[in-house]
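Hi F.,

I've been meaning to write this up properly since the lab meeting, where we talked about keeping a consistent format for the predictions we share between groups. The idea is simple: the sequence comes first, exactly as it goes in, then the structure tokens exactly as they come out, then a line or two of notes. No screenshots and no reformatting. I'm using this chain as the first example so we have something concrete to point to.
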Amino acid sequence: MIVGFNHNVSYRSVDFHVQTEDGGLKRPQLVTLLYHGGTIIASQKTSYADIIKVDALDHVVEELAKEQHKGMLRRLTKGEFDERIVELGIPLGASASQPSQPLNITESSPAESVQPEEKSITVPTPEPVTIIEEPLVDKFRQPKVSHEPSLDDLIYAYLTAGQKQE
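Output, unedited:
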């Protein structure tokens, strides 16, 4: 089982968080989530149940997780989620330091001998992305330093309040 990956990313002047976790042998799947605040913008799940008996499973799963995690970062920075982000009411800033550059697109049909019509559209130049790497934390082997309940314990207690334990 891998530890998981977490990155904070600033994209178009908005901070996002990408998190990838392994479900382990009982639930062999990798889950990557893209967050803004507490809102999940996108998710991706990949099952690896079909390769669970492969040699060096930990290494294989770690490589799969890295690729899935990096893929989510790439998709965000290429603008794949822009429409969904705006639909959720999260305003995306434009890059003030880099003005939009016009792009000429020519449309033509090979069957026609008519001169192609030129259309000019404006495509914003993407803002440079800042990736802040968080330290890897093994959530399964963390030393207990405090006697206070963890956030997971508090959430579990809240969700199971009033239920009988079997």
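Notes:
The chain is about 20% helix and 30% strand.
The mean pLDDT is 75.

If this format works for you, I'll send the rest the same way.

G.
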